[in-house]
Amino acid sequence: MSLFLIAAHVVGTINRNRIRALVGLAGAIVLVGAGAFAVTQHVSYGIGLYWAVTTATTVGYGDVTPHNTAGRIVAAAVMLTTIPTVGAVFALVTGAAALTRIRRMLGMDNRLPNRSYTIVFGAHPVVPRVLEELVRSGEETVLVAPDKPPALGEQVHLIAGDPTDEAILRRCDLSRANRALIACTEDADTLVIAVAIHSLAPQLEVFALTHSPAVARALHELGIDDTLASDELVGHTLAKSLETPQAGGLLLSLVDSTSYRLAETPVAPELVSQPLSRARASAGRLVLGIARERQVDLGVGEDPVLDADDHLIVLEPL
Description:
The chain has 3 domains: 2-105, Helix Hairpins; 117-233, 3-Layer(aba) Sandwich (Rossmann fold); 259-317, Alpha-Beta Plaits (2-Layer Sandwich). Helices cover 49% and strands 17% of the residues. It is built from 10 helices and 10 strands. Mean pLDDT is 79; it is low at 1-14.
C-alpha cells in the first residue's frame, strides 16, 4: 500500500509538471503561429491569433485561410504541433482525475480539509453513523482508520492507516482539528491513541467511546473528561426500558431527529444568577438541564441557580 502511495505521488507530480509544460508549449505555438500567419498573409496580429486559435482547437471555421505557400506551411506546422499537444494535455488531465478517483475509492487520498475539522479515530461499528451525522450537520470530517467503511462518502476525508501509529497521527495535523473522537473496537487502542494525542496536541478537545467505566476513569486521569462507556449506557438504557418501556424510544428520539437537535449553549448574561426554571420559561426551545463542571444537572427536585460558566442543554429546531 505504501509503495502505491509513493508511486501515485511521483506520478501525480510528474503529470502536473507535464501539464504546465504542455500548456505553455501550446500557448507559445499559438502565439508564434499567429505572428507568422499575420506576416505571411499580410493581416493584423488579431486576425492571425483568431486563425491560430480556431486552427489549434480544430474548429476551423474557414473564414480566415492561408492564401500562399508560406501560409500553408505555417498552418501545417501549427496543426501538427498544437493539436497533439492540446490532446496530450486533455489526456493527462483525464488520467489525473481517474487517479484521484481510484485513490479515494481505495482510501489513499490523504488530503486534509482547508478549514478546521472534526477528526475520528478508530473503526468501532458506530463510526459510520457518527460520520453520517457529522456530514449532515455540515462538519468537515476526517477519519483515521485501517480501512474505508463501505458507506463512507467523499465528504469524509480518509487517512488510511493504524490510528495507534504515531506516524499516522502526525500526518493528521492535529493543530488544525477543533475536536477529536476516539472510537476503537478495543479499549487498549483507545488508551494508546489518547496518550499519543495528549502528547501531540494537549489542547485538543477529545471525546472517547469506551466499553467499560474503568477505562473511562483511566481516560479521565489523562485529562479526557468527555467519555462515554457504551456498556454502561446500554445497560442503564435497557434497565430503564424494563421499568418504562418507552424510555429507549425517548432517548433515541432525543438524539436521532431531522427536525430538531440537542445543543449546548452558554448561559445568557440576563439569566446569570437566575433559577433554571427561568431559562426553561424562555420561548423557542426546550431546556433539558445544565452542564456544570462536566456534570449534567436536570434540575429535577431542585431548581439550581445558573452561573456564568454553566451551559444550557437545549432541544432546538433545525
